[in-house]
């Protein structure tokens, strides 16, 4: 694969091009879109966890001045496709989970819409529901595959025999909690249906995938639908697919032709409607000889899905490739429950899947009396154990060594060191995330008014796409980055893949490089105003011969108050090998953002599901605790100067998600080193260490 010959803009710590507008409040988000005379929506949600709506009394609401429409399952338009049960809003009176959408009020003001929606009397035929995840759930089943197209189960060799023969074994069950994405900008849309065409200003991680989903559900021609989204106030996966609110607001727009309508979910509504990280129960088995060479690795995962739409988190997948062992087994089983629909949350699969295995490795190191860093190094595989393919590049050992050195790991000592009232401990874990590139994206490059403009329907959800895509375009064109603009976040630009799976920069950047080559091929270095060329992701250059992953190592210091059990993490250091870094400034933000979210998972975030009523009890930011500045001490992200020639023409791997993988395990391992208490379920709260 050809390399970009002279990176000049790539590698520079350029400031965010959208930063000033965001800080000044002049960047327009979906709900703020300036439309004429908007109407406002407020949903009606089911207050039972399972059953059927038998009646909704809407007469009084409809008669009120200022109420424009009341949509219910009894009067809503019939959708073209109801195949996806999440999107089939108001198509039936069945209630599959508490909080499901059963109606919508559209009114002249948001206050009126909310007041009226809350006042509608709903009658139900209620049934007993089942919303409790447990390993002996009678409905447990093996899905056909798990997410991202991975096989549900894998097996090689004989784990049971290897465990029986191993000199040292670990066999424990670990649990990761239910978690909810809480981007600061809620899921919000402004929608306008006019002359048979639809415009959605929607907060989304991908305008084209968003449009495709809406067109499918409503049976619309893509030519007649435009999705616009220049800025996103965070997504983390929750805006990777549209959720039911997007279909509902589209329905409202179609009910009121010519009138723009707005729907912003409340924070509480998001806890029912916009997905969550499914809780997981992971039985881990490790067998090794006295020198720490693994002979067996097994992970058996039980996790939940909603009954109406399968979501199979690929939790067991990282255990397939992290360490060498002749005997390996991974399985996934799903418990179908009467619960809201799980979805993507930063590093779905790898994030929960690097918890059990990385704590189990720490437990094995302890049982062996071996340093946990050395244990990992001792089990470094030459090739991908799962596929047998060579690595495109794998610098885990280098990350472990550099991280240990930066952290001062060698001074770690035997643990339970006391400083005043505080017990101090050090822990570590590995990180991993696959390097993915989506197959389809197109970019075009136009020369206009002496400037180059790269157009692509990409999304910047706070990650830096506005800033790094011009860097890639500039180097591909061989011009100064100051002479390059990008235009993103609109379906009027060429088709772009979702900002998900840490694949955005890889995918869109590859298309931009291709467009630049086409442009230069057509017009040379002296273009005229109006010259334009486009390029696609080069399929032929997509490497399938190598296993491509970013790797990392994270080191944490935990301090646990000896009397109260209060847990603090004053130091967190990560070292990553993620290919060429396009922009150190935005990359560092991505990595420490991931690590902070991992710290949050370790200590704070927890969607407490009340199985009696089938809902998250702490469904607001007052009770759902997210790590804030005061909870973060020193947090550092470093990286190796890695250039991977196989992944794409930039040599860059993804960095959006790897930062959150392994963090919670590093913290748990540090807490154990501090206290001697091994916490196997997240989050680590003080009651668990006392
Ligand atoms: Mo990310 S959870 O792949 O949007």
TrEMBL record:
Coiled-coil segments: none
InterPro entries named among the record's database cross-references: Ald_Oxase/Xan_DH_a/b, Ald_Oxase/Xan_DH_a/b_sf, Ald_Oxase/xanthine_DH-like, AldOxase/xan_DH_MoCoBD1, AldOxase/xan_DH_MoCoBD2, AldOxase/xan_DH_Mopterin-bd_sf
Residues of the Aldehyde oxidase/xanthine dehydrogenase a/b hammerhead domain: 24-128
Record carries keyword Protein biosynthesis: no
Entry keywords, A to Z: Molybdenum, Oxidoreductase
GO MF annotation terms: iron ion binding; oxidoreductase activity
Entry annotated with the keyword Transmembrane: no
Domain of life: Bacteria
PANTHER family: ALDEHYDE OXIDASE 1-RELATED, XANTHINE DEHYDROGENASE
Protein's UniProt name: Xanthine dehydrogenase family protein molybdopterin-binding subunit
Gene source species: Modestobacter muralis
């Amino acid at each position: 694969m050809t390399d970009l010959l002279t990176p000049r803009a790539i590698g520079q710590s350029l400031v965010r091009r959208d930063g000033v507008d965001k800080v000044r409040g002049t960047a327009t988000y979906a709900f703020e879109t300036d439309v004429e005379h908007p109407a406002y929506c407020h949903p009606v949600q089911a207050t039972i966890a399972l059953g059927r709506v038998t009646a909704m009394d809407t007469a009084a609401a409809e008669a009120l001045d200022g109420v424009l429409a009341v949509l219910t399952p009894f009067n809503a338009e019939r959708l073209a496709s109801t195949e996806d049960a999440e999107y089939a809003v108001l198509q039936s009176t069945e209630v599959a989970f508490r909080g499901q959408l059963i109606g919508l009020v559209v009114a002249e003001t948001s206050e009126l819409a909310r007041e009226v929606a809350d006042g509608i009397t709903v009658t139900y035929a209620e049934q007993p529901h089942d919303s409790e995840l447990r390993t002996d759930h009678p409905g447990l089943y093996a899905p056909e595959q798990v997410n991202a197209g991975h096989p549900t189960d894998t097996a090689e060799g004989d784990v049971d025999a290897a465990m029986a023969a191993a000199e040292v074994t670990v066999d424990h069950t670990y649990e990761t909690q239910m978690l909810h994405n809480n981007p600061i900008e809620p899921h919000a849309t402004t929608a306008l249906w006019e002359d048979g065409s639809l415009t959605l200003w929607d907060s989304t991680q991908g305008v084209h995938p968003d449009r495709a989903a809406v067109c499918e559900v409503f049976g619309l021609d893509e030519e007649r639908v435009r999705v616009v989204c220049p800025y996103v106030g965070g997504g983390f996966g929750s805006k990777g697919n549209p959720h039911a609110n997007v279909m509902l607001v589209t329905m409202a727009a179609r009910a009121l032709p010519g009138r723009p309508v707005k729907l912003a979910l409340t924070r509480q509504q998001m806890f029912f409607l916009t997905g969550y990280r499914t809780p997981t129960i992971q039985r881990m088995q490790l067998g090794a000889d006295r020198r720490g060479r693994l002979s067996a690795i097994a992970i058996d995962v039980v996790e939940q899905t909603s009954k109406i739409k399968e979501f199979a988190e690929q939790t067991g997948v990282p255990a397939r490739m992290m360490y060498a062992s002749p005997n390996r087994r991974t399985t996934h089983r799903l418990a179908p429950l009467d619960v809201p629909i799980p979805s993507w949350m930063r590093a779905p699969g790898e994030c929960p899947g690097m918890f059990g295995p990385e704590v189990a490795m720490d437990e094995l190191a302890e049982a062996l009396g071996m340093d946990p860093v050395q244990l990992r190094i001792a089990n470094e595989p030459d090739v991908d154990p799962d596929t047998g393919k060579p690595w495109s590049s794998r610098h885990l050992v280098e990350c472990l060594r550099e991280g240990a050195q930066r952290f001062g790991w060698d001074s770690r000592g035997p643990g339970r060191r006391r400083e005043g009232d505080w017990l101090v401990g050090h822990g570590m874990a590995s990180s991993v995330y696959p390097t993915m590139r989506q197959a389809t994206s197109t970019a075009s490059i136009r020369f206009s008014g002496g400037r180059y403009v790269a157009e692509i329907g990409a999304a910047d959800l706070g990650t830096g796409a506005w800033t790094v895509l011009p860097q890639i375009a500039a180097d591909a064109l061989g011009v100064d980055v100051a002479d390059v603009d990008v235009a993103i976040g609109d379906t009027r630009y060429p088709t772009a893949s979702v900002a998900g799976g840490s694949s955005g920069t890889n995918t869109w950047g590859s298309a931009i490089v291709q467009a630049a080559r086409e442009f230069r091929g057509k017009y040379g270095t002296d273009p005229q105003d109006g010259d334009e060329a486009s390029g696609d992701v080069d399929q032929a250059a997509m490497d399938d011969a190598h296993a491509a992953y970013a790797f990392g190592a994270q080191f944490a210091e935990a301090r646990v108050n000896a009397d109260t059990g209060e847990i603090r993490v004053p130091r967190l250091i990560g070292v990553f090998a993620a290919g060429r870094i396009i922009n150190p400034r935005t990359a560092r933000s991505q990595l420490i953002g991931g690590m902070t979210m991992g710290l949050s998972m370790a200590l704070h975030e927890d969607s407490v599901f009340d199985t009696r009523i089938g809902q998250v009890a702490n469904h607001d930011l007052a009770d759902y605790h997210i790590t804030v500045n005061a909870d973060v001490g020193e947090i550092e992200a470093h990286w190796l100067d890695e250039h991977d020639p196989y992944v794409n023409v930039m040599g860059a791997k993804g960095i959006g998600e790897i930062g959150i993988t392994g963090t919670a395990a590093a913290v748990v391992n540090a807490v154990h080193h501090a206290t001697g208490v091994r916490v196997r379920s997240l989050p680590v709260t003080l009651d668990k260490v006392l």
